[in-house]
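Weekly structure sync, notes
Attendees: PL (lead), two postdocs, one rotation student
Agenda item 3: pending single-chain targets
PL asked that the sequence for the first pending target be pasted directly into the notes so everyone works from the same version. It is reproduced below exactly as submitted, 452 residues in total.
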Amino acid sequence: MRISVIGLGKLGLCAAACFATKESRVIGVDVNAGIVDAVNNGRAPFYEPRLQELMETAGSRLRATQDYRSALEESDATFLIVPTPSEPTGRFSAWSLREALRHLSSALRGSSKPYHLFNVTSTVSPGTTTEQLIPLVEELSGRKLHDGFGVCYNPEFVALGSVISDFLKPDMVLIGESDDLAGGALASLYRAVCENTPYVARMSIVSAEIAKISLNAFVTMKISFANTLAAISEAIPGADGDAITRALGADRRIAPHALKGGLPFGGPCFPRDNRAFAAFAECHGVDARLARATDDVNLARERQIVRLVEEQLSTANEHSVSILGLAYKAGTPVIDESPAVAVVQHFLRRGDVAITVYDRLAAENARSVFGDRVAYATSVRECVSKSALCIIMTPCDEFRSIDERYVAHDPTTFLDCWRILDPSRLGGNARYVTLGTAMPKPLQGALAESGE
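Predicted structure, written out during the meeting:
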């Protein structure tokens, strides 16, 4: 199948590269001329693990353009992977989808091809595809659904930092189909591309739209429950949050995935999808109180971490802090709704704390937010040396190398949010504190005041 991909961002270009490495001819469309030029020159315009490698493997099977008409004519199926930002109501904006479909539908009107398959991959509020997008295509193309074009809603379940491996080896392929022909063609494509044998869930378009946002809402509930257990364990001597969640995860009804207490969830998807789920439910007269409570717990956990750091600064009479990890998770430069960014911004507002940060991938994105108000270390060792209080905010592999050779202050406190350091290697001048286990008494006071 010849494929076009509209939107060559962090998800779109990865999907295009995956299709192209599996022998499909792929043409991508993006409004950013720089991205188009980079793709045509075989260069990844941003970092995502394995992307450059796959682009080199794809070679001439992957190219890019700004011309929607040629993309439509030179493909059998189009994947729309464009931004759908949140609106003030919590619902998703479909503006970029409508704009792309205006161009594509106009091209389809003048085309002699008998059929084209449109696949909406961007996350949308339930009802968007059938109520807004399909009528738009019918109006501008002069064709009717099932007679000249088909539509699927086919969202991705991938995470930044592992987009390509998640795409090629998914747990599930979700297909909301306008009819059996459209859904069957898409299912066949994925069977040829996936390197495993995922469950292919085929259903109505609106069911798939609900499934997408409800899956993310459920995962965030699980994360917030794990963080609640971590908070309980921090308050009770002898309790171990990791031991508790490992036991719970061994039950097949629960499973261990996303069940590890630590920092609040962040990123470009989880927070907004959870709010969108609640907004959608309320529009239909359903009180999604679990989703709202998940948001409340997440915000409380963020406040708790800030208070914990404040208490430690006060106890140590310290006026500087080193933050290791700025992205919302390891392995990505993305800082959207990152708990580390929230901590830094809090202390910038306070104005009396010197902040040194380090994140090999996310430093440039952070610089666009913080400017010169923080110091940017160029290595893990430099960052640790700048303060007697060091906070491990992401479980990056390079942080695991920290040992007594890095310790420059006596004492140096390490607050390890994800329990990745080996305290036996930190030496006698280090004080090791983790989330998910009982805190020293001064820190317990901060937790109690935070309301957790």
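Discussion points:
- The longest helix spans residues 205-235.
- Residues 442-452 have pLDDT under 50 and may be disordered.
Action: rotation student to compare against the earlier draft before next sync.
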